[in-house]
Amino acid sequence: MSTVFPTPRLTNPAGFGRVAVLMGGTSAEREVSLASGGNVLDALRARGVDAHAVDGIPALVAALVEKKFDRVFNILHGNKGGGEDGVLQGLCEALGVPVTGSGVLGSALAMDKIRTKQVWLALGLPTPRYVRLAKGAKVQDAARELGLPVIVKPACEGSSVGITRVFDEAGLDAAVELATRYPGELLVEQLVTGGEYTVGVLGDVALPSIRIVPAGEYYDYHAKYQAEDTQYLCPGLAGDDEAAIRRLALAAFRAAGCRGWGRVDVMRDAAGNNWLLEVNTAPGMTSHSLVPKAAREMGLSFEDLCWRVLETSLGDGEGGHA
């Protein structure tokens, strides 16, 4: 596992051409995406990149049809109007426009937590036990099969949207009611008690892990994007434990067909076992976001990180000149 970044492929910002920074959209994560996108836009412009904000996929389509952009920095979050479910990637591929991050397969697979788990389990990678809650199925049966406590969540949302931790049967129906407000299937997952970690991936490098210590009981939406008292310990582990969680995250990222950059979320139980939760293929880039914190630990400024992410849109024949 590499722990050193390769030399940048481009040094002249003109080599990127005209860049669309795609943000906003219509998913449940619109506000987070707008915050991320504004930061990315400022960083790229500060480095001399000809970057422009585009809000949502329909606006991008209109601009690409008119050939206004040479490539896309995707910082949309979520699905159904977000840019992490493979739809945007298929569009860009069909139009021959490079886009940052994972392609159609990796994006679509990682957005679906159930299918991601199926791939990981097939490869022997550790992930908490789960039950797919089919339409009409009783959540009580799933909870009994797994054993309480459990987590009930939409299978295809991010940013802790629609998630409930349930410790007794009395809370199950309300958890399902919340999760069904969002499209797609539901997932009932065994709750792992322990430390919350995340590992960013940039190219072939797994970034230092981050241990997340919220002031409250859980790392929920408020703790992620609003609270100022959440602690981020980076690196989150040391020695062999740190190396192991980074190897696992990189293996999980690749197994899901992902490439370019992303973030893998992991729980670590009291016995020191790591459990994979999900992959984010367009992680947040807000003031509270995790990938920038880990990149900074390896000496990459926010501007450097945005440049490197933009380089993930370069094809094999690009970037060989200054």
From TrEMBL:
Name recorded for this polypeptide: D-alanine--D-alanine ligase
The answer on whether this UniProt entry bears the keyword Cell wall biogenesis/degradation reads yes
Keyword field = ATP-binding, Cell shape, Cell wall biogenesis/degradation, Cytoplasm, Ligase, Nucleotide-binding, Peptidoglycan synthesis
Spell out the Gene3D superfamilies in the cross-references: 3.40.50.20, ATP-grasp fold, A domain, ATP-grasp fold, B domain
Function of the protein: Cell wall formation.
Pathway as given in its UniProt record: Cell wall biogenesis; peptidoglycan biosynthesis
Q: Which organism is it from?
A: Arenimonas soli
* EC number in record: 6.3.2.4
The catalytic activity, as recorded, is:
2 D-alanine + ATP = D-alanyl-D-alanine + ADP + phosphate + H(+)
InterPro entries, per the entry? ATP-grasp, ATP_grasp_subdomain_1, D-Ala_lig_Van_CS, D_ala_D_ala, Dala_Dala_lig_C, PreATP-grasp_dom_sf
Its localization reads: Cytoplasm
HAMAP family, sorted:
Dala_Dala_lig
Q: Per the database record, which ranges form the ATP-grasp domain?
A: 117-311
Assigned protein family: Belongs to the D-alanine--D-alanine ligase family.
Q: What does this protein need as cofactor?
A: Mn(2+); Mg(2+)
The molecular function terms in GO held by this entry are: ligase activity
